[in-house]
Amino acid sequence: MPRLMPPRRLTLPDSAGLARRRADARRSAPSAARNRAPILDAVARFAPARGRALELASGTGEHMVALARRLPGLEWQPSDVDPEQRASIRAWLAHAGLSDSVNPPIHLDATAPGWGARLAPRALILLINLLHLISAPEAETLIAEAARALAPGGVFLIYGPFLRGTEFASEGDRRFHESLRAQDPEIGYKPVEWVRDAQCAAGLHPLPPVDMPANNLILPARKPG
Q1: From CA 6, how far away is CA 169, in angstroms rounded?
Q2: Residue pair 152/171 in contact by the 8 Å Cβ criterion
Q3: How many Å is the Cα radius of gyration of the chain?
Q4: Is CB count within 10 Å lower at the N or C end of the chain?
Q5: pLDDT at position 10, please?
Q6: Please, what is the angle between helix 192-201 and helix 136-149, to 10°?
Q7: What global pTM score does this model have?
């Protein structure tokens, strides 16, 4: 069984933007505004019209608001391991008038074993910008648990920056990866093929990668059935 890693406090490009600047608990991540529209378009390509959807590591909640508005036929479940992020998600949902149509955020460490069966079945699972912030064993556990949580025919979408083989898509990606490894040598960018192999090992069928702005990708996979 992969060992669980201790919680990390990383210095990231969005760190300064996560400070509260409102009277309520809402937090903001600048990258959420930059990549929201293309992510919504890509998720809409794979999402079913109806069903139960789970977002892992929902962060501030800004993406969850946009997803719930764009895909109202889905029953959305946000989650996060950080209580301040869960408070931000609740505040964003209340501010958007979505508290009655989106489930309250749950505490979930997606890198821990055992949650997949508990939260099954899900028609759609979405992970945004986390895989490069966790270790390879943690990522393997996350992907395996997501596979267990999916309903037959369900789709798991992983968004973020990845290596193409052993190459970085840009010099900026290389610098960001090196800054992550300096903080924790066990984290950093994962190769696309490594992720696809982990999806296959979990019993999922990888689908073609989707190119996204800023050299990011969505790596989709479907559960047979």
Answers
A1: 30
A2: no
A3: 16
A4: N
A5: 75
A6: 50
A7: 0.92
The mean pLDDT value of the chain amounts to 92
Residue type, 48: P
| Domain spans of the chain, in order of start | 19-222
Phi, psi angles (nearest 5°) of residue 163: -80, 145
Q: How far apart are CA 3 and CA 135, in angstroms?
A: 10
DSSP string, 158-211: EEE--BBTTB-SSHHHHHHHHHHHHH-TT-S--BHHHHHHHHHHTT-EE---EE
The residue written with tokens 């109806």 in the block is 50
CA distance 98 to 100: 5
How far apart are alpha carbons 29 and 11 in whole angstroms?
13
Q: How far apart are CA 115 and CA 145, in angstroms?
A: 6
CA distance 212 to 199: 20
Amino acid of residue 203: G
Are 159 and 40 spatial neighbours (Cβ–Cβ below 8 Å)? Answer: no
As a residue count, the chain comes to: 225
pLDDT score for 29: 81
CATH number of this structure's domain 19-222 = 3.40.50.150
Confidence of residue 33 (pLDDT cuts 50, 70, 90): confident
